[in-house]
Write a structure and sequence with these properties.
With 463 residues, this protein is α/β, with parallel strands linked by helices. The chain has 2 domains: 2-109 and 122-236, 3-Layer(aba) Sandwich (Aldehyde Dehydrogenase, Chain A, domain 1); 242-432, 3-Layer(aba) Sandwich (Aldehyde Dehydrogenase, Chain A, domain 2). It contains 15 helices and 21 strands. The strands form 5 sheets. The protein has a 7-stranded mixed β-sheet, with helices on both faces. Strands 8-7-6-9-10-20 form a 6-stranded mixed β-sheet, sandwiched between helices. The N and C termini lie far apart (65 Å). The relative contact order is 0.14. Belongs to the aldehyde dehydrogenase family. It holds the Pfam family Aldedh. Residues 5-457 form the Aldehyde dehydrogenase domain.
Length: 463
């Protein structure tokens, strides 16, 4: 990505380095004006019947499905993931719009038994106001719809700053919202000359009442600090260091299949992907052999080509960082199961490392690339200690056919989401989010809309 002028960003294809389009850049004054218009529009949007908002969201959902192929191709061009994965993301992103279109009609309040006969207690839920979001490049459509849909369903207006690496998908999906009939001042996309510039405006502007962020723990912590001065509501989906655990009683073939899906989807560039593998010593060699055999079948290339499983990583700095983690692990004693090849451009060969130990840098840091670091363990107690020995707590995965162990490990793991005999856990109907330094708040499910609602208690006296 390069800057063409002060008012446009050139967007490039990570697979070819070709410029594929330009995205408009707003000045500080323009972004602040957008916030003010969004504040005014929100009052009218919230006053609409919930059924009306629901219908407009449903139409937006339908337009995403009708334009799936164009959106998928655009996403592959600017983000790099294989086309079949992009197609899946469009459906995944659309699912949140459909879900929250339905939830718009279900923001129920409560009646509460009063402590005296002359009073009546009631709660109602009301939209927060103007909500904003900062979203990442790895899921450029789903990370927007997962936030925008509940905000709009609740009656909030919504402003999103997408990644400068993948802004075209954002503009495209929001254009479809306009075509669905959602007012232009109710949902907006903004880009600034720098990401911190927009973050500063979002966190300091008094009309912004909610900030949702998906990204690194470091940046999330900074945004929370900046939002504290006027007590903005925040939700944070931050870094992860997901363990993938295989017990000796596991179905090894199923575990290998789950590992491939969890680790190598989007070239390993997901916050919930398996980051470190703990395999029981009794099945360690079998698992490594079978996983490596499947990894060697993965095809690396341009996501628009047939049968490609792994596209490019997002940038040169990302590739350099991943390679440095691999090199450091080898220095510390890890052994590549197959010889490592250097690929041109932003492509990276998927790597399986064995003889990895828990204290290695590659285990303690989020890799965000196609690297599987595999360790041994011998007891449940040892495993639980190592799996929880991290500041992060987003996702974890384990495979076991022992029902007693399943409950024990599921309850012991300090993570917001746990996949049990399953490598893909994300869905619009379940709450997505982490604990510890992986964030606060939940997206999706019935909990997702509550992030954009205030609960108001009404006390009726004199009855």
């Amino acid at each position: 990505m390069v800057t063409e002028s002060d008012s446009a960003l050139a967007v490039s294809n990570p697979a070819t380095a070709d410029i594929i389009g330009y995205a408009p850049v707003s000045s500080d004054a323009e972004i602040k004006a957008d916030i003010e218009r969004s504040h005014t529009a929100q009052k009218h949007w919230a006053a609409l019947p919930a059924k009306t908002r629901s219908g407009l969201l449903q139409r937006w959902f339908e337009l995403l499905l009708e334009n799936q192929e164009d959106l998928s191709r655009l996403m592959t061009l600017e983000q790099g993931k294989p086309l079949h994965e992009a197609q899946g993301e469009v459906l995944y992103g659309a699912s949140f719009i459909e879900w929250f279109a339905e939830e718009a009609k279900r923001t129920y309040g409560e009646t509460i038994p009063a402590h005296s006969g002359d009073k009546r207690f009631v709660t109602i839920k009301q939209p927060i106001g103007v909500a904003c979001a900062i979203t990442p490049w790895n899921f450029p459509i789903a990370m927007i719809t997962r936030k925008a849909a509940p905000a709009l369903a609740a009656g909030c207006s919504f402003i999103v700053k997408p990644s400068e690496l993948t802004p075209l998908s954002a503009f495209a999906v929001v254009e479809l919202a306009y075509q669905a009939g959602i007012p232009r001042d109710v949902i907006k996309v903004v880009l600034g000359n720098t990401a911190p510039q927009v973050g500063d405006i979002f966190t300091s502007h008094p009309l912004i009442r909610k900030l949702s962020f998906t990204g690194s723990t470091r940046v999330g912590s900074l945004l929370m600090q900046q939002s504290a001065h006027d007590i903005k509501r925040t939700s944070m989906e931050l870094g992860g260091n997901a363990p993938f655990i295989v017990f000796e009683d596991a179905d090894i073939d199923a575990a290998v299949k789950g590992a491939l899906a969890s680790k190598f989807r989007n070239a390993g560039q997901t916050c919930v992907c398996a980051n470190r593998f703990y395999i029981h010593s009794n099945v360690y060699d079998t698992f490594v052999t079978k996983l490596d055999a499947e990894v060697q079948k993965l095809k690396v290339g341009n996501g628009l080509e047939n049968d490609v499983n792994i596209g490019p990583v997002i940038s040169e700095s990302a590739k350099t960082g991943i390679q440095s983690k691999i090199d450091r692990a080898i220095e510390q004693g890890a052994i590549p199961v197959t010889p490592i090849q250097t690929l041109p451009g932003l492509f990276m060969q998927p790597v399986v490392l064995r003889n990895v130990s828990h204290d290695m840098d590659i285990v303690q840091q989020e890799i965000f690339g196609p690297v599987a670091s595999i360790m041994r363990f011998d007891s449940d107690e040892e495993l639980i200690h190592m799996a929880n020995d991290t500041i992060y707590g987003l996702a974890a995965y384990f495979y076991s056919q022992n029902i007693h162990r399943v409950w024990k490990i599921a309850e012991a793991l300090e993570y917001g989401m746990v996949g049990i005999n399953e490598g893909i856990i994300s869905t619009e109907v379940a709450p997505f989010g982490g604990i510890k330094q992986s964030g606060i708040g939940r997206e999706g499910a019935k909990q997702g809309i509550d992030e954009y609602l205030d609960v108001k208690y009404l006390c009726f006296g004199g009855n």
